[in-house]
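tmp note - Cis-aconitate decarboxylase
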Amino acid sequence: MWAKTITGNFASVIHGLNTNHLTDVVIQRSKRMILDTLGVGLLGTSTEVCQKVKQYSKVHSMDFDDTWHPATHPSGAVLPAVMALSEAFPQKKKVSGLDLLLAFNVGIEVQGRLLRFSSEARNIPKRFHPPTVVGTMGSAAACAKLLALNQMKCKNTLAIAASYAGAPLANAATQTKPLHIGNAAKHGLEAACLASQGLQGNNQILDMESGIGAFYTDYNPQTLPTLQSYPWLLDQQDVAIKRFPAHLGTHWVADAASSVRRKLVENSGNLLPLETIEKVTVKVPEVKYVNRPSPNSEHEARHSFQFVACSTLLDGSMSIQSFASENIHRPALQELLCKTQLEHPSDNKPSFESLYCEVTVVLRDGNTISDRCNTFYGHWRKPLTKGDLEKKFQSNASEVLPAEAIEGIIETVYNLEKVEDCSVLNTFLSGQSARLLPEKLHVEHSNS
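out:
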Protein backbone atom coordinates (compact mmCIF):
# COMPACT_ATOMS: atom_id res chain seq x y z
CA MET A 1 0.00 0.00 0.00
CA TRP A 2 2.78 2.46 0.89
CA ALA A 3 4.75 2.17 -2.33
CA LYS A 4 1.77 2.83 -4.61
CA THR A 5 2.40 6.57 -4.46
CA ILE A 6 5.64 8.53 -4.58
CA THR A 7 4.65 10.22 -1.31
CA GLY A 8 4.05 6.85 0.37
CA ASN A 9 7.36 5.58 -0.99
CA PHE A 10 9.21 8.59 0.45
CA ALA A 11 7.44 8.11 3.79
CA SER A 12 8.47 4.45 3.97
CA VAL A 13 12.11 5.30 3.16
CA ILE A 14 12.23 8.18 5.68
CA HIS A 15 10.72 5.87 8.29
CA GLY A 16 12.82 2.84 7.30
CA LEU A 17 16.34 4.23 6.98
CA ASN A 18 18.49 3.49 10.04
CA THR A 19 22.03 4.15 11.20
CA ASN A 20 23.24 0.90 9.62
CA HIS A 21 22.43 2.37 6.21
CA LEU A 22 24.98 5.19 6.67
CA THR A 23 28.21 4.62 4.73
CA ASP A 24 31.67 5.81 5.69
CA VAL A 25 31.71 8.33 2.82
CA VAL A 26 28.32 9.75 3.80
CA ILE A 27 29.40 10.05 7.45
CA GLN A 28 32.68 11.77 6.57
CA ARG A 29 31.11 14.18 4.06
CA SER A 30 28.20 15.07 6.32
CA LYS A 31 30.55 15.76 9.25
CA ARG A 32 32.43 18.25 7.06
CA MET A 33 29.09 19.85 6.13
CA ILE A 34 28.03 20.03 9.79
CA LEU A 35 31.32 21.62 10.91
CA ASP A 36 31.19 24.16 8.08
CA THR A 37 27.54 25.00 8.73
CA LEU A 38 28.12 25.50 12.45
CA GLY A 39 30.96 27.94 11.72
CA VAL A 40 28.96 29.85 9.14
CA GLY A 41 26.02 30.01 11.54
CA LEU A 42 28.21 31.31 14.38
CA LEU A 43 29.62 34.04 12.15
CA GLY A 44 26.13 34.84 10.91
CA THR A 45 25.01 35.72 14.44
CA SER A 46 27.12 38.87 14.23
CA THR A 47 25.52 40.25 11.04
CA GLU A 48 23.07 43.13 10.80
CA VAL A 49 20.40 40.84 9.36
CA CYS A 50 20.68 38.49 12.30
CA GLN A 51 20.51 41.33 14.80
CA LYS A 52 17.28 42.43 13.14
CA VAL A 53 15.71 38.98 13.01
CA LYS A 54 17.46 37.06 15.76
CA GLN A 55 15.26 33.98 15.78
CA TYR A 56 15.28 33.30 12.04
CA SER A 57 18.44 33.44 10.06
CA LYS A 58 21.61 32.51 11.84
CA VAL A 59 22.93 30.27 9.09
CA HIS A 60 22.53 31.90 5.72
CA SER A 61 22.88 35.57 6.63
CA MET A 62 26.18 35.96 4.78
CA ASP A 63 25.71 33.58 1.82
CA PHE A 64 28.60 31.50 3.15
CA ASP A 65 26.98 28.06 3.38
CA ASP A 66 27.54 24.91 1.33
CA THR A 67 26.04 24.40 -2.13
CA TRP A 68 25.02 21.18 -3.83
CA HIS A 69 24.17 20.03 -7.35
CA PRO A 70 21.40 20.32 -8.49
CA ALA A 71 21.57 23.78 -6.98
CA THR A 72 20.55 24.32 -3.37
CA HIS A 73 22.12 25.04 0.03
CA PRO A 74 21.42 21.68 1.70
CA SER A 75 22.82 21.89 5.23
CA GLY A 76 21.53 25.25 6.45
CA ALA A 77 17.89 24.22 6.25
CA VAL A 78 18.41 20.93 8.12
CA LEU A 79 21.09 21.29 10.79
CA PRO A 80 19.47 24.08 12.90
CA ALA A 81 16.18 22.19 12.90
CA VAL A 82 17.56 18.84 14.05
CA MET A 83 19.82 20.48 16.63
CA ALA A 84 16.95 22.51 18.07
CA LEU A 85 14.75 19.43 18.13
CA SER A 86 17.45 17.31 19.80
CA GLU A 87 17.60 19.89 22.62
CA ALA A 88 13.86 19.47 23.23
CA PHE A 89 14.12 15.74 23.99
CA PRO A 90 13.84 14.78 27.68
CA GLN A 91 17.16 13.93 29.33
CA LYS A 92 16.32 10.23 29.58
CA LYS A 93 15.83 10.09 25.78
CA LYS A 94 19.25 11.34 24.78
CA VAL A 95 19.89 11.89 21.06
CA SER A 96 23.21 10.31 20.09
CA GLY A 97 25.60 11.73 17.51
CA LEU A 98 24.66 8.84 15.23
CA ASP A 99 20.94 9.68 15.59
CA LEU A 100 21.76 13.27 14.62
CA LEU A 101 23.85 12.15 11.63
CA LEU A 102 21.06 9.88 10.41
CA ALA A 103 18.36 12.58 10.67
CA PHE A 104 20.65 15.15 9.03
CA ASN A 105 21.40 12.79 6.14
CA VAL A 106 17.73 11.91 5.64
CA GLY A 107 17.09 15.66 5.30
CA ILE A 108 19.93 16.05 2.79
CA GLU A 109 18.83 12.97 0.82
CA VAL A 110 15.22 14.10 0.46
CA GLN A 111 16.39 17.45 -0.95
CA GLY A 112 18.63 15.76 -3.51
CA ARG A 113 15.94 13.35 -4.63
CA LEU A 114 13.34 16.08 -5.05
CA LEU A 115 15.77 18.18 -7.11
CA ARG A 116 16.20 15.24 -9.48
CA PHE A 117 12.49 15.27 -10.29
CA SER A 118 13.10 18.24 -12.60
CA SER A 119 15.76 18.76 -15.26
CA GLU A 120 15.40 22.56 -14.97
CA ALA A 121 16.49 22.24 -11.31
CA ARG A 122 19.96 21.26 -12.57
CA ASN A 123 20.62 24.86 -13.60
CA ILE A 124 21.11 27.96 -11.46
CA PRO A 125 17.56 29.00 -10.51
CA LYS A 126 15.56 31.76 -12.18
CA ARG A 127 12.18 32.00 -10.43
CA PHE A 128 12.33 30.74 -6.83
CA HIS A 129 15.09 30.10 -4.31
CA PRO A 130 15.51 26.28 -4.11
CA PRO A 131 16.19 26.02 -0.34
CA THR A 132 12.75 27.47 0.30
CA VAL A 133 11.20 24.48 -1.46
CA VAL A 134 13.47 21.45 -1.07
CA GLY A 135 15.09 22.80 2.12
CA THR A 136 11.70 23.01 3.84
CA MET A 137 10.93 19.44 2.77
CA GLY A 138 14.39 18.25 3.87
CA SER A 139 14.07 19.88 7.27
CA ALA A 140 10.65 18.27 7.68
CA ALA A 141 11.95 14.81 6.72
CA ALA A 142 14.95 15.12 9.07
CA CYS A 143 12.74 16.15 11.99
CA ALA A 144 10.24 13.36 11.22
CA LYS A 145 13.16 10.92 11.35
CA LEU A 146 14.46 12.28 14.66
CA LEU A 147 10.95 12.09 16.12
CA ALA A 148 10.66 8.48 14.83
CA LEU A 149 7.29 9.22 13.23
CA ASN A 150 5.38 6.36 11.60
CA GLN A 151 4.81 6.23 7.85
CA MET A 152 1.42 7.96 7.93
CA LYS A 153 2.83 10.82 10.00
CA CYS A 154 5.85 11.05 7.68
CA LYS A 155 3.44 11.51 4.76
CA ASN A 156 1.59 14.23 6.65
CA THR A 157 4.88 15.90 7.57
CA LEU A 158 5.75 16.21 3.87
CA ALA A 159 2.26 17.48 3.04
CA ILE A 160 2.28 20.13 5.77
CA ALA A 161 5.82 21.23 4.85
CA ALA A 162 4.80 21.70 1.21
CA SER A 163 2.31 24.37 2.27
CA TYR A 164 5.19 26.32 3.80
CA ALA A 165 7.39 25.98 0.71
CA GLY A 166 8.60 28.60 -1.76
CA ALA A 167 10.02 32.12 -1.92
CA PRO A 168 10.75 34.26 -4.99
CA LEU A 169 14.30 34.76 -6.21
CA ALA A 170 13.63 38.49 -6.54
CA ASN A 171 14.68 38.85 -2.91
CA ALA A 172 18.19 37.57 -3.65
CA ALA A 173 20.85 40.20 -2.91
CA THR A 174 18.65 41.80 -0.23
CA GLN A 175 18.50 41.49 3.54
CA THR A 176 15.42 39.30 3.10
CA LYS A 177 17.20 36.41 1.34
CA PRO A 178 18.77 35.09 4.60
CA LEU A 179 15.26 34.58 5.99
CA HIS A 180 14.68 31.90 3.33
CA ILE A 181 16.88 29.25 4.91
CA GLY A 182 15.94 30.19 8.46
CA ASN A 183 12.30 29.79 7.54
CA ALA A 184 12.94 26.49 5.75
CA ALA A 185 14.51 25.05 8.91
CA LYS A 186 11.80 26.44 11.17
CA HIS A 187 8.88 25.42 8.97
CA GLY A 188 10.17 21.88 8.43
CA LEU A 189 10.46 21.43 12.20
CA GLU A 190 6.99 22.86 12.66
CA ALA A 191 5.55 20.52 10.01
CA ALA A 192 6.99 17.45 11.73
CA CYS A 193 5.72 18.59 15.14
CA LEU A 194 2.23 19.26 13.76
CA ALA A 195 2.16 15.87 12.02
CA SER A 196 3.26 14.19 15.26
CA GLN A 197 0.20 15.79 16.89
CA GLY A 198 -2.08 14.29 14.21
CA LEU A 199 -2.48 17.17 11.73
CA GLN A 200 -3.20 15.82 8.25
CA GLY A 201 -2.52 17.01 4.70
CA ASN A 202 -2.78 15.67 1.14
CA ASN A 203 -1.19 12.20 1.20
CA GLN A 204 -0.10 12.47 -2.44
CA ILE A 205 1.74 15.78 -2.12
CA LEU A 206 4.81 14.56 -4.05
CA ASP A 207 2.76 12.87 -6.78
CA MET A 208 0.72 15.81 -7.98
CA GLU A 209 1.44 18.70 -10.33
CA SER A 210 -0.50 20.83 -7.87
CA GLY A 211 1.69 19.55 -5.02
CA ILE A 212 5.48 19.98 -5.09
CA GLY A 213 5.08 19.77 -8.87
CA ALA A 214 3.69 23.32 -8.75
CA PHE A 215 7.26 24.65 -8.59
CA TYR A 216 8.55 22.93 -11.74
CA THR A 217 7.36 22.98 -15.34
CA ASP A 218 8.90 19.55 -16.02
CA TYR A 219 8.12 17.73 -12.77
CA ASN A 220 8.62 13.97 -13.08
CA PRO A 221 8.61 12.22 -9.68
CA GLN A 222 10.29 8.83 -9.25
CA THR A 223 10.25 6.21 -6.52
CA LEU A 224 13.31 5.94 -4.29
CA PRO A 225 15.72 2.98 -4.38
CA THR A 226 15.03 0.01 -2.17
CA LEU A 227 16.17 0.18 1.46
CA GLN A 228 18.42 -2.84 0.95
CA SER A 229 21.93 -1.30 0.66
CA TYR A 230 20.42 2.15 0.11
CA PRO A 231 22.48 4.36 -2.31
CA TRP A 232 22.77 7.84 -0.74
CA LEU A 233 23.11 10.76 -3.14
CA LEU A 234 25.78 12.29 -0.90
CA ASP A 235 27.88 9.18 -1.64
CA GLN A 236 27.76 10.08 -5.34
CA GLN A 237 27.71 13.88 -5.20
CA ASP A 238 29.71 15.91 -2.68
CA VAL A 239 28.96 19.56 -1.84
CA ALA A 240 30.92 22.72 -2.61
CA ILE A 241 32.22 24.60 0.43
CA LYS A 242 32.78 28.34 -0.02
CA ARG A 243 36.01 30.14 0.85
CA PHE A 244 34.31 33.55 0.97
CA PRO A 245 30.69 34.61 1.52
CA ALA A 246 29.14 35.20 -1.92
CA HIS A 247 27.07 33.48 -4.61
CA LEU A 248 28.76 30.24 -5.66
CA GLY A 249 29.08 31.37 -9.28
CA THR A 250 31.44 34.16 -8.21
CA HIS A 251 33.98 31.61 -6.90
CA TRP A 252 35.00 30.71 -10.47
CA VAL A 253 35.44 34.44 -11.09
CA ALA A 254 37.66 34.90 -8.03
CA ASP A 255 40.01 32.06 -8.96
CA ALA A 256 40.34 33.22 -12.58
CA ALA A 257 40.86 36.87 -11.56
CA SER A 258 43.43 35.86 -8.93
CA SER A 259 45.50 34.08 -11.60
CA VAL A 260 45.31 37.12 -13.90
CA ARG A 261 46.41 39.41 -11.06
CA ARG A 262 49.47 37.28 -10.32
CA LYS A 263 50.58 37.77 -13.92
CA LEU A 264 49.78 41.50 -13.84
CA VAL A 265 51.79 42.31 -10.71
CA GLU A 266 54.89 40.25 -11.50
CA ASN A 267 56.87 43.39 -12.34
CA SER A 268 55.10 45.98 -10.19
CA GLY A 269 55.89 45.13 -6.57
CA ASN A 270 52.56 43.36 -5.98
CA LEU A 271 50.50 46.49 -6.70
CA LEU A 272 47.94 46.39 -9.48
CA PRO A 273 48.93 48.91 -12.19
CA LEU A 274 45.39 50.28 -12.36
CA GLU A 275 46.16 53.17 -14.70
CA THR A 276 47.46 50.75 -17.35
CA ILE A 277 44.18 48.78 -17.54
CA GLU A 278 41.95 49.62 -20.49
CA LYS A 279 39.22 47.00 -20.08
CA VAL A 280 38.26 43.90 -18.06
CA THR A 281 36.13 41.18 -19.65
CA VAL A 282 34.50 38.44 -17.57
CA LYS A 283 33.07 35.44 -19.43
CA VAL A 284 30.40 33.75 -17.32
CA PRO A 285 26.99 32.12 -17.88
CA GLU A 286 23.98 34.40 -18.07
CA VAL A 287 22.65 34.58 -14.51
CA LYS A 288 20.64 37.77 -14.25
CA TYR A 289 20.60 38.11 -10.48
CA VAL A 290 24.42 37.88 -10.28
CA ASN A 291 24.93 40.47 -13.03
CA ARG A 292 25.32 43.67 -11.00
CA PRO A 293 27.65 46.24 -12.59
CA SER A 294 27.52 48.69 -9.67
CA PRO A 295 26.55 47.05 -6.37
CA ASN A 296 25.68 49.44 -3.53
CA SER A 297 25.38 47.09 -0.54
CA GLU A 298 27.17 44.05 0.80
CA HIS A 299 24.22 41.87 -0.26
CA GLU A 300 24.38 43.19 -3.83
CA ALA A 301 28.18 42.78 -3.86
CA ARG A 302 27.80 39.13 -2.83
CA HIS A 303 25.66 38.67 -5.96
CA SER A 304 27.89 40.50 -8.45
CA PHE A 305 30.24 38.79 -10.91
CA GLN A 306 31.71 42.23 -11.65
CA PHE A 307 32.41 43.13 -8.02
CA VAL A 308 34.18 39.85 -7.26
CA ALA A 309 36.31 40.14 -10.43
CA CYS A 310 37.41 43.70 -9.61
CA SER A 311 37.87 43.11 -5.89
CA THR A 312 40.09 40.07 -6.58
CA LEU A 313 42.11 41.94 -9.22
CA LEU A 314 42.77 44.69 -6.67
CA ASP A 315 43.45 42.56 -3.58
CA GLY A 316 44.55 39.17 -4.90
CA SER A 317 41.86 37.21 -3.05
CA MET A 318 38.38 37.49 -1.54
CA SER A 319 37.53 37.47 2.17
CA ILE A 320 34.76 38.45 4.56
CA GLN A 321 36.27 41.95 4.68
CA SER A 322 35.94 42.34 0.91
CA PHE A 323 32.25 43.08 1.48
CA ALA A 324 32.74 45.81 4.08
CA SER A 325 31.20 49.11 3.01
CA GLU A 326 34.54 50.93 2.85
CA ASN A 327 35.87 48.29 0.42
CA ILE A 328 32.77 48.28 -1.77
CA HIS A 329 32.86 52.07 -2.16
CA ARG A 330 36.62 52.69 -2.50
CA PRO A 331 37.50 54.78 -5.58
CA ALA A 332 39.92 52.22 -7.10
CA LEU A 333 37.20 49.56 -7.11
CA GLN A 334 34.62 51.92 -8.59
CA GLU A 335 37.10 52.90 -11.31
CA LEU A 336 37.75 49.26 -12.20
CA LEU A 337 34.02 48.42 -12.20
CA CYS A 338 33.52 51.10 -14.87
CA LYS A 339 36.02 49.28 -17.10
CA THR A 340 34.44 45.85 -16.60
CA GLN A 341 31.94 44.06 -18.83
CA LEU A 342 30.40 40.59 -18.83
CA GLU A 343 30.19 38.26 -21.81
CA HIS A 344 28.02 35.13 -21.98
CA PRO A 345 29.49 32.53 -24.37
CA SER A 346 26.88 30.10 -25.69
CA ASP A 347 28.86 27.10 -24.40
CA ASN A 348 28.92 28.46 -20.82
CA LYS A 349 25.82 26.91 -19.26
CA PRO A 350 24.38 28.16 -15.92
CA SER A 351 25.10 24.92 -14.05
CA PHE A 352 27.40 24.57 -11.05
CA GLU A 353 28.53 21.27 -12.57
CA SER A 354 29.82 22.69 -15.85
CA LEU A 355 30.16 26.50 -15.82
CA TYR A 356 33.52 28.22 -16.24
CA CYS A 357 34.88 31.74 -15.94
CA GLU A 358 37.46 33.47 -18.11
CA VAL A 359 38.84 36.83 -17.03
CA THR A 360 40.71 38.95 -19.60
CA VAL A 361 42.47 42.24 -18.86
CA VAL A 362 43.28 44.45 -21.86
CA LEU A 363 46.12 46.90 -21.18
CA ARG A 364 46.55 50.35 -22.72
CA ASP A 365 49.63 49.15 -24.62
CA GLY A 366 47.50 46.54 -26.39
CA ASN A 367 48.67 43.52 -24.39
CA THR A 368 46.06 41.14 -22.97
CA ILE A 369 46.34 38.88 -19.95
CA SER A 370 43.79 36.12 -19.54
CA ASP A 371 43.06 33.10 -17.39
CA ARG A 372 40.25 30.59 -17.11
CA CYS A 373 38.86 28.67 -14.13
CA ASN A 374 36.95 25.45 -14.79
CA THR A 375 36.88 24.25 -11.18
CA PHE A 376 37.48 26.57 -8.22
CA TYR A 377 39.12 25.41 -4.98
CA GLY A 378 36.25 24.35 -2.71
CA HIS A 379 34.13 22.85 -5.53
CA TRP A 380 33.19 19.18 -5.13
CA ARG A 381 35.75 18.30 -7.82
CA LYS A 382 38.47 20.12 -5.83
CA PRO A 383 37.37 19.97 -2.17
CA LEU A 384 38.91 22.01 0.63
CA THR A 385 41.55 20.12 2.58
CA LYS A 386 40.70 19.15 6.14
CA GLY A 387 43.13 21.84 7.33
CA ASP A 388 41.53 24.59 5.25
CA LEU A 389 38.03 23.53 6.32
CA GLU A 390 39.14 23.77 9.97
CA LYS A 391 40.75 27.16 9.35
CA LYS A 392 37.48 28.46 7.88
CA PHE A 393 35.56 27.12 10.88
CA GLN A 394 38.03 28.55 13.40
CA SER A 395 38.03 31.94 11.69
CA ASN A 396 34.22 32.08 11.63
CA ALA A 397 33.69 30.72 15.14
CA SER A 398 36.37 32.89 16.76
CA GLU A 399 34.15 35.93 16.14
CA VAL A 400 31.77 34.50 18.75
CA LEU A 401 33.33 31.71 20.84
CA PRO A 402 36.43 31.17 23.02
CA ALA A 403 39.18 28.86 21.73
CA GLU A 404 38.28 25.99 24.09
CA ALA A 405 34.71 25.83 22.84
CA ILE A 406 35.91 25.97 19.22
CA GLU A 407 38.26 23.03 19.72
CA GLY A 408 35.47 21.19 21.55
CA ILE A 409 33.13 21.58 18.58
CA ILE A 410 35.78 20.36 16.12
CA GLU A 411 36.56 17.29 18.22
CA THR A 412 32.88 16.52 18.80
CA VAL A 413 31.93 16.80 15.13
CA TYR A 414 34.87 14.66 14.01
CA ASN A 415 33.76 11.96 16.49
CA LEU A 416 30.04 12.52 16.07
CA GLU A 417 29.16 8.92 15.23
CA LYS A 418 30.65 7.89 18.61
CA VAL A 419 29.17 10.67 20.79
CA GLU A 420 26.48 9.39 23.18
CA ASP A 421 24.68 12.70 23.78
CA CYS A 422 24.82 15.24 20.97
CA SER A 423 23.57 18.06 23.22
CA VAL A 424 27.26 18.56 23.99
CA LEU A 425 27.38 20.45 20.67
CA ASN A 426 24.78 22.94 21.85
CA THR A 427 26.71 23.40 25.09
CA PHE A 428 29.89 24.21 23.19
CA LEU A 429 27.93 26.53 20.89
CA SER A 430 26.83 28.48 23.95
CA GLY A 431 30.53 29.07 24.72
CA GLN A 432 31.03 26.61 27.58
CA SER A 433 34.14 24.45 27.71
CA ALA A 434 34.61 20.70 27.87
CA ARG A 435 35.61 20.66 31.54
CA LEU A 436 31.96 21.02 32.49
CA LEU A 437 30.80 18.13 30.33
CA PRO A 438 32.52 14.85 31.20
CA GLU A 439 29.36 12.74 31.04
CA LYS A 440 28.09 14.17 27.74
CA LEU A 441 31.45 13.93 26.05
CA HIS A 442 31.58 10.20 26.70
CA VAL A 443 32.66 8.66 23.43
CA GLU A 444 32.31 5.03 22.43
CA HIS A 445 36.01 4.35 21.92
CA SER A 446 35.46 0.65 21.44
CA ASN A 447 34.45 1.17 17.80
CA SER A 448 37.28 3.50 16.85
